[in-house]
């Protein structure tokens, strides 16, 4: 018997939240917050020199959460800030030697695990999974847009 739309959505939602929980649990076992882990993950996955203001929209987290995480990582001695190239007012994020050591032992293990997980899929399955995931996200954005506008108008007074 085929799944209903509701059953399929709930199954996808449960999987999504389970994966998020696994990531949160991993960050906690590393001794950092989810957002601090995302900052370090960003520097390892995308390269050092990332601008702090780019991280919040990349991972859909509050800018203040990223700011707090960066302050905490600075206090731990894992990050250093440098003036942005080109004279912009933002600060670029770089790992200190201590931060690099932390990442090599923890964040890099997470990146390797992600690669191992995705290597279990064929190239065709991987492309299909990414395409379907993006399609669902875009459809959700479009479907919720009227609700978001209605709620914004309702609470604007």
Automatic annotation (TrEMBL):
SMART domains according to UniProt: HTH_MARR (SM00347)
Entries under PROSITE patterns matching the protein: HTH_MARR_2
Residue stretches making up the HTH marR-type domain: 1-138
GO MF annotations, alphabetized: DNA-binding transcription factor activity
InterPro entries, per the entry: HTH_MarR-typ (IPR000835), WH-like_DNA-bd_sf (IPR036388), WH_DNA-bd_sf (IPR036390)
Protein name, entry field: HTH marR-type domain-containing protein
């Amino acid at each position: 018997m085929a799944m209903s739309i509701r059953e399929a959505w709930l199954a996808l939602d449960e999987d999504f939240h389970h994966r998020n929980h696994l990531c949160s649990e991993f960050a906690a076992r590393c001794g950092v917050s989810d957002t601090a882990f995302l900052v370090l993950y960003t520097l390892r996955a995308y390269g050092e020199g990332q601008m702090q203001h780019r991280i919040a929209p990349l991972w859909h987290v509050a800018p203040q959460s990223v700011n707090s995480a960066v302050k905490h990582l600075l206090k731990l001695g894992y990050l250093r800030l440098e003036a942005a190239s080109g004279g912009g007012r933002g600060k670029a994020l770089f790992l200190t030697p201590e931060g690099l050591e932390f990442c090599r032992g923890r964040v890099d293990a997470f990146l390797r695990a992600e690669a191992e997980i995705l290597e279990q899929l064929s190239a065709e399955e991987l492309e299909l999974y990414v395409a379907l995931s993006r399609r669902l996200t875009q459809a959700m954005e479009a479907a919720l847009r009227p609700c978001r506008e209605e709620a914004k108008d309702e609470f604007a007074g």
